[in-house]
Hints:
305 residues; alpha+beta; Pdz3 Domain; seven-stranded antiparallel beta sheet; two-stranded antiparallel sheet
Amino acid sequence: MAAGAALWSGGAILNHGGATGIPAASSADSSSIGTVTTGESKDSSASTSSSSGSKPDEFYEVEIEKPYGIKFYKGTDGGTYIDALAPGGSAAKTKMFQPGDKVLATSAVFGNEIWPAAEYGRTMYTVRQRIGPLLMKMQKKYGEREDQAVSSEKLAAQRNANVISEQLREIQIQNYKRKMQLKKQREEDLRDGLQLYKKSAYQEALSKFESVLGSKPEGLEEAIASYNVACCYAKLDQVEAGLSALGEALEAGFEDYKKIRTDEDLASLRASPEFKALIDKYDEPIFNENAVKAIKGLFGFFGKT
């Protein structure tokens, strides 16, 4: 990125001078859960069948507060879906969300407006930036995952048959193709995000890097993309969202602590009193040299003959 992005390509991290994803969500007590409402949507699509073909569409609304404890993924339609829930988190405590469910709309960044969740990157921006309780309008998918080329039920049935059938081979081929498509898309989004960042188009770059995080990143891809997200938010002076993304990068294995402590792109984050506590969770704090000498002297490390 401008002064600092890193790009994942072919297993290597390419540094370009400056900036290089759900942290382990902390628990929230039951008071953090807002109103939960369920029921059929007033939209005409409520009467149609779900993508599974066997169950009707069902819609629900849930209001939660930070930390949400939700991990999302990007669907092939560009939409936002539930990937996983953190045990004990605000979302899990509602007992409403289920992996595979689709996000249709959310609260706006602030106020009472509702914004459609039409594009993954922008939806993630809204969710991270939201001030106050977050209302989410959802479509239930009954545990079916949009990111799977073949339904989990169908795949399990094939495996349980103890026969390596042509159908099972086809399933494996479809899943492999899907994996390769996601890998290619991540590489393109990272490159596009890097170019946008260099042009100081931070919001546009942010959407690309969030897209990487939603496309099943592997290995250090998640750590690098999350670090880039943190840099974008830092440049936009959105400190809370930036620290959240930086925490995700550290959780995912980003270990260049010297870079985090010196990268000019993260200057606004380091100015926050919360920065030190975050980095010290992963990197050993810098000890006061005089204090170390005093401790050594106390235990007789000095003056011995």
